[in-house]
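User: I'm putting together a teaching handout on how multi-component assemblies are represented. Below are the sequence lines for each component of a complex, exactly as they appear in our records. Could you produce the 3D structure of the whole assembly as structure tokens, so the students can see both representations side by side? Please keep the chain order the same as the input.
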Amino acid sequence: MPSVLEKIRVLGENSKYDICASTASSRTDKYPKLFGDSKNWIGTTASAGICHSYTPDGRCMSLFKTLYTNKCIYNCKYCFSHNCKKKLSFTPEEYARTFMKLYSMNVVEGVFISSGVCGSADDTTEEMLEAIKLLRFKYNFQGYVHFKCLPGVSQYLLKEAISLSDRISINTEASTKDYLAEIAEQKDFKNDIIMRQRWLKEIRIKHNDETLKVIKDLKQDAQLKYQEKMIKDRRNNGYKKFRWDGAPILNSGQTTQFVVGAAENESDYDLLKRIDWGYKEVDLRRAYFSSFIPIEGTPLACKQAAPLAREHRLYQSDWLLRIYHYKLKDLKEILIEDDNLPIGDPKIHLARLYFKDHGLVDPNQASYSDLLRVPGIGPISAKRIINLRSKKFKFRRRQDLKSVGVVLKRAEPYLLINGKNQTTLQNFIYQDNNSAPQEEMI
Amino acid sequence: MKNSTIKKDPLEIIGRAKGHSYREIIDKLPRHCKFSPYLIDQVKNIPEVILRNSGTPFAKKINRMMREVTTEAYRAKQFTRTEINNRGVLFGVVLLKHKVLDSVLNYFHERWPQCIICLYNEYSCKTGVINEKGTIQEIDAPLKSVVEKVSKNRPVIPYFDDIQFSGKEIFETLYKSQFISERENKSYFKRMIPDKCFELPGMRHGVEKRFRNKRINEFL
Ligand code: SF4
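Assistant: Of course. Below is the structure of the complete assembly, with chains in the same order as your input.
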């Protein structure tokens, strides 16, 4: 019988390529928790951003991240399952207990549960859910839980998973059906993944609409009775009707993850197109990218690893789509051959292109969207600039911009401060020769 | 720069980019070990915009002091390793120069509301205790005796009895399992765990101190 330690060693190692942000989840307190703010709850997600440990590569390790089992009916070409001879599984009790121990030591902040598909997606998911239910209802853990859904899992189990967790995700792995077939031929892109992503969105919206209506329609007395019944029935059924803690709305958003560079010829544009679709169609909260790393003993062992810089550029572009609301077609303009992103920060490439046509930006006149296009100015500093302008403040000095959070080193080449542009060496040489073409300065 | 021009500067009101407000400074600065009330009087004479932007050497000093206080509390929350006994007493050791013990105790209290939390401060050689109701007490005694004393009157609680096994090895195994050699990034690691954090009691002989089973300082 393998020990818990052995399981953690193997299953932890098998999950190391899965990516998750630290407890980046905010639970809304807009609605009361029907089960009350019990003093019996353990843990919190309030202090998001606390990372208790860092792995030697510098990434924070704030979650208990292991697979539930590494037994898998699939045979994805990039996956460890080809060479990992030891096939192990946790039991729900083991999993929950081990986590609570680590939580009591203040070395982890929450749970990230993922798994291979043992038997069927439903069987494995049921076991994973059992572990999470133990955490929620036996150990009264109210901290962060990220639940990784398995491809092809049933809708009713997805509903349970959403009710019990803070974050939910399904790995898309590749951007299209063909690319997925190339690296994981047994997975059905449309059915196993895309349809499940759509379900996750529908379940949440439908649930929130219906439950809020039910609660609103109940008279105060009835609400109390309903509440009592739910508290009694929390472990069995209550959590199916509400969120695990009794809040009537489900706010666990979905994320996804891609293996970058495993499928031949899959371009950055293909990946960006897919995440753009995700933001529009399935309420994706964010996407993660994991550079392909060949694992010995797998069919892709001889394939070259994808450069980490590519992963980084994808994150930067994703940020532009998600936070800066750039359009996909903007990003398309800077692509180089094979539809990949050029080396360097995509925002700088975009700015070079944009300001070549539109001229430099005067922070006293530029629109919010123009300000956002300047490298070194983010949504917060752009808003501050607009705010200050509405109070009739004029930006005349570099310090004025610095004090609202503008990163001058990056922004200055694109700005006109008090009517002047930064004097770069190139600029200086041109001035000396009495010619100063603006676009070349940039 | 004249005061009148500064007062008109709207940055003072809405241009918050960095630094701290008067209120935050008045609340937090007294926690600094080198605080004197005279500092607050001086702070009140400086426009907020100057304070926020470290506009004078004095403002710079205030911001540094504020940073020291917040960082110490934050680091203690991150890197204090705790243990829990079967009577629901959670305990650990901290090294706090500034007066932030209450904020660290409250942090653990929020997580473990049914527990009594005892944190021994190696700096002051006192043990801070927070009970289930959130009342804080500082006791001039070593951790072991405080834990024994508070545990004595409490029954064994099955919940905590259930997690009475050693977790150290479990964490070390989990920690090692997450290492991806292809992503090795020494400078980033060093940045995330600055050397001074190794001095925190919770980090002593901790696995984070090691990099591929060598002490981090052997590499750097
Ligand atoms: S589904 Fe594919 S990637 Fe996931 S564990 Fe199974 S073989 Fe590996």
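A couple of points students might notice: Confidence is low (pLDDT under 50) at residues 28-36, 434-442 of chain A. Chain A has 18 helices and six strands.
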